Amino acid sequence: MSKESAPVSFKEQSTQRYEPPYAHPSGAVPPRIPAELIPEHVAIVMDGNGRWANQRGLPRIEGHKAGEPALLDVVAGAIELGVKYVTVYAFSTENWKRSPEEVRFLMGFNKDVLRRQRDQLNRWGVEVRWSGRKPRLWGSVIRELQDAERLTRGNTQCVLTMCINYGGRAELVDGFNRMAEDVAKGRLKPGGISEKTVQKYLYQPDLPDVDLFMRSSGEQRLSNFLPWQSAYAEFVFLDELWPDVDRTTLYKAVETYARRDRRYGAAVDSAAV
Ligand code: IPE
Ligand code: IPE
Ligand code: MG
Asked: How far apart are CA 53 and CA 66, in angstroms?
C-alpha cells in the first residue's frame, strides 16, 4: 500500500482536528514554565457566584450565569498551559440545602451549560466526564452529561471532569459499599484492600491525584471536594469571586504552584556537604 493511501489512525485524525483555544481578549499569553512544573491535574472550587451577584444588587442566580464564561476561559488556559486534567466543583451533595428555586436553577443551568458548550469543548479536544452520585440528581442532567461524555470520548487535549452532585465523603462511602458487595460475592479479598483498591472504586478511578487545588472567593476550605485525591495537593486560595476569574487567574495560580517545594514527606538536609 502506498504511503498516501495508508489509513490515518484515529488518534492522528483526532489530534489534527482540534482547534486551538481563542486568544484571551487582553492578549495575555501563558507564562513560560518548564513542562515538569506544570500541574497535571488542577481541581477547582468555583466559589463566590452568589456574593458576586449580591454585591451588584442582583439575585444569586445572576452570579451563576456570570460564572459560565469563567469556566470556559479557564479551560482555554489549561489547554494553553498543558494541564491535562481539570476537575471542577459545580454542585455538591450539600448544595441541596439551598432554596428550591436556586437548586432548580442550578440543575437547569448545568444542563444548559453542557448543551451550550459541548461542541466548543469538543473542538478544542476536551474530553468531558461526570463525577458524582446518581440518586437525587435530575435525570435530564445525567442524560446531558452522558451525551457530552459520548460526544467527547477519546479527545486528548484535556479531561474536564464536572463534579455534579459530588461529595468526597459520598464518593468514598459509595466505593466502600461496592467493595463490601464485592467481598460478599468473593470478588475481593477482605484484608487485601490497599490504597490502589480504594482508588479503583472512586467515581473516576483513572484520574491522577490532584496537584493543584484552587478555590476562588477567599474561602479556605475543602467543602468536601476530592479529599482522597487531594491528600498531597498544593492549595492556592484566590480572593477573586468566580465570575471575575479567567485564564490569567489560572496562570498566576500555576506560577505559584511551580514555586512550591513538593516534598511528600521526604527531607533534604541542606547543611549536608
Ligand atoms: C459557587 O458559588 C457555585 C455553587 C456552589 C453552585 P456560590 O453559589 O457558593 O456563591 P457564594 O459562595 O454564596 O458567594
Ligand atoms: C462548594 O461551595 C461547592 C461548589 C462550588 C459547587 P459552597 O459555597 O457550596 O461551599 P461552602 O458552603 O462555602 O462550604
Ligand atoms: Mg459558596
From this structure: 9
Task: Return the pLDDT at 17.
Answer: 84
Per-residue confidence (pLDDT) for residue 273, from 0 to 100: 59
pLDDT at res. 3 = 41
Average pLDDT per run of 10 along the chain, which is 273 residues long? 44 69 97 98 99 98 98 98 98 98 98 98 98 98 98 98 99 98 97 97 98 98 98 98 98 98 95 74
The pTM assigned to this predicted structure is 0.94
Nearest to residue 229, comparing CAs of 212, 251, 252?
212
| Residue 215 assigned ligand-binding role | yes
Instruction: Compute, in degrees rounded to 10, the torsion defined by CA atoms 196, 198, 201, 205.
Output: -50
Residues having CB within 6 Å of any atom of ligand 2: 45-47, 89-92, 95, 219, 221, 223
Amino acid in the structure at residue 91: F
Query: In whole angstroms, how far apart are CA 145 and each of 18, 104, 113?
Result: 21, 17, 10
Beta strand 85-92 with 41-45: parallel, antiparallel or unpaired? Answer: parallel
Active site residue 224: no
Residue 95 annotated in active site: yes
14 labeled binding residue: no
